[in-house]
Design goal:
This protein is globular. The C terminus is likely disordered. It has one domain: Glycosyl hydrolase domain, family 43 (Tachylectin-2, Chain A, 5 Propeller). With 333 residues, it is mainly beta. It comes from Agromyces salentinus.
Length: 333
Amino acid sequence: MPYTLPDVWTWDMWFADDGTNHHVFYLKASRALGDPNRRHFHVTIGHAVSDDLRTWREVRDALIVSDEPAFDDCTTWTGSIVRDADGAWRLFYTGTSKAEGGLVQRVGTATSTDLSTWRKQPGAVTEADPRWYEKYGTGQWFDEAWRDPWVSPAPDGPGWRMLVTARANTGDADDRGVIGVATSDDLVTWSVQPPASTPGAGFGQLEVPQVAWIDGRGVLIFSCLANEMSASRRSPGGGGVWAVPLTDGEALFPIERAVRLTDETLYAGRLVQDRDGGWVLFAFHHVDAGGNFVGSLSDPMPVSWAPDGRLRVSDGRFDHLLDHEEVIQPTGG
């Protein structure tokens, strides 16, 4: 059964594996708010554990907002977790401040030895650089996008790479979505880099990005809703979780190749490898058949490569979406 909590909505999530238990961290907010749109600014980072990725036990929350003044005294949003060379866990998360009305996003970090008790490190470690990225008030968007950090070892050498939801500083308002990048040698000091994709692929924003290698093939996933896409990309389908098969040697992520993994009933997808080496997709239940917000975490859904080279949810429940998307043939990695 999906991970549903009776008193809170749950949505964006990320995972860590300590070798014994799987840990899921997720955004949560009280259902007493009434209007689910209010959840974004009344949010806590929750935590649950499982030994099989199916049955979860809620434990103490991971993070709340900081006391004022701080870059994260308004919200603590989506992130990711890695383990450093000394065995400590590092949680990278999105923060916004009350002083800026929650409209400017930055990335901060917290550390832990046990995935349970977290200690925030002072200040933000990255934010949008105006040389390449849209800043609040300089474009036609509702906020300054620099969130959802996905941190992993650098693909082309030592060090680490952070992918973030960002917007380019050129292009049409609904077409500026890019994958932002920062790099680090030590997970402490970060340097913002030019984006890893170009605007113009039809997306206003590319939320919760993640790169994974499945059976030797690379894939980037992200999420975007129909109302945050250009008209050309929005037709004939809606939004949801998107997948971009990756080809060796490409300098930039080819976002124009994106095809949908799910429709808008699911959102904020994450790919997770189970203990048997298989890959599954998690997402949160976004809306029901009537368009009402749900707010619970899905069960794991196995994924596989289709014969035509596209990643798909293996049970075929979303195969009909691919009828409207271009077929891309990825190469091995």
